[in-house]
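Anyone able to model this chain together with 5-O-phosphono-beta-D-ribofuranose?
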Amino acid sequence: MKVAMIMGSNSDWPKLESVEKVLKEFGVELEVTVASAHRTPELVKEFAEGARDRGVDVIIAAAGAAAHLGGFVAAYTTVPVIGVPINATALNGMDSLLSFVQMPSGIPVAVMAIDGAKNAAIFAVEILAVKYPELVDKLAAYRAQMKAEVKAKGDKLEAVRTASAKLAASGKKIEDAVRNFVKK
Ligand code: RP5
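re: yes, here you go
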């Protein structure tokens, strides 16, 4: 089970670190390469052409500006490519988004949101789950955990909101309320 992530520059890494974290949670191996479609096109070609032989199941391609890394990679391999447009220029990622998403017919790139690295990792796991069924239960557990976290956040907000409303209604000064709380 292997994902290869290629990025246009090491300056993109801070926006992509979550890919490593998510894949680790699912026990998926990650290979990371820095190569640019315009500065090192030969390296990108080599990376993409050799991907299947290296055992790569899914590729994540991420880059800022309009250098078209996703389509470039996809042109040299039939391993599925997930694109992550990066916000790195004065156009706030729109340049990158369009260069990834508007692929002409024949060579697809599955494009995530601008800076959407985490979803790229989750989507990669969903693709891997077709071949490795043990990931199906892990994906379900991942969603269950998200659900529990959302519920806990909602409960916490409601508790704070109710407590503040009670405090305001009681007309007590905050200092008194805190003193009483500490006494308890
Ligand atoms: C793109 O240009 C890279 O993917 C990066 O997002 C952006 C800037 O690269 P550096 O100048 O920081 O190397 O090709």
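The chain has a mean pLDDT of 95.
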